[in-house]
Design a protein that fits this description.
about 260 residues, alpha/beta, Rossmann fold, 2 domains, 4-stranded antiparallel beta sheet, 8 helices, 11 strands, about 35% strand
Length: about 260
């Protein structure tokens, strides 16, 4: 799938992304705390190279880190900056492809690529290009944090859908419903994703459907690609250990 279709998916989702959370502000704080604990230092220079509307980037900025956010979606990156300003934290954002990061070498202490963003790259060549860029902009010994779905489990069962999420949005008390349908390709690894969002509208439901493609990268395979890109000591950390909502792969930039 062309990269502009991924940008379009998240451009279309940008205004409503917070509705996949029961409480987005609580999610910002919770995810920021979990990532801050892994960084283990205060006031580090952090790049969130798939910042979306700012869930992880704002959470880390609230913890005092100096965060820059980039995203393939211009609308998502712009919203992230607005949301940060509304919470009185500084977050510089820009639209950028993680395979071509617009920063000098060794600029950051940590790089975050969370929320299943890396699997939108559909070939080993593209994943390697992105990881090589993350390695390039990290200082020697800097920390990489990548989160994905629990793909080892999903590859065993190849489900046709994700469970629906029903939330009552705190802004107006209305319920929203979000779910996904997955159509697996013949290779058993890639899948077409249909993202459904049901929003109340004048006593009826307004349905938004967005489509993209992802690659179900298993843990061993992704850890191997991370090592090939120049990182050392890759380690998967599960949600019960970190408090983060997805499995997290951490590694350090080789010296």
């Amino acid at each position: 799938m062309p990269e502009n279709s991924v940008a379009q998916f998240y451009d279309d989702l940008a205004d409503d992304y917070h509705l996949i959370y029961a409480d987005w502000d609580a999610g910002i704080r919770r995810q920021g705390e979990a990532l801050h604990a892994l960084i283990g230092q205060d006031r580090t220079a952090v790049l969130d190279c798939s910042c979306g509307i700012g869930t992880q980037a704002i959470g880390l900025a609230l913890r005092g880190h100096r965060v820059i956010g980039t995203d393939l979606s211009p609308r998502a990156a712009a919203r992230a900056a607005r949301e940060a300003a509304q919470r009185d934290v500084t977050l510089r954002t820009a639209a950028a492809d993680m395979r071509r990061l617009p920063f000098p070498d060794a600029r950051f202490d940590a790089v975050v690529c969370a929320d299943n963003s890396l699997p939108h790259l559909l070939t080993e060549q593209d994943v390697h290009a992105a990881l090589a860029e993350m390695r390039r902009v990290l200082r020697p010994g800097g920390l990489l944090m990548v989160s994905t779905r629990a793909y080892d489990d999903l590859l065993r069962s190849r489900p046709a859908s994700a469970p629906p999420q029903v939330h009552r949005y705190a802004g107006d008390g209305e319920r929203t419903v979000t779910f996904q349908l997955w159509h697996w390709h013949e290779d058993g690894e890639h899948y077409d994703l249909e993202h459904f969002q049901l929003l109340p509208a004048a006593g009826e439901w307004r349905v938004r459907v967005r489509r993209t493609v992802s690659w179900a990268l298993g843990r061993d395979r992704l850890a191997g690609l991370v090592a090939e890109a120049g990182f050392v000591a890759p380690r998967w950390r599960m949600p019960q250990e970190t408090g983060f909502f997805q499995p997290l792969l951490t590694a350090h930039a080789g010296k």
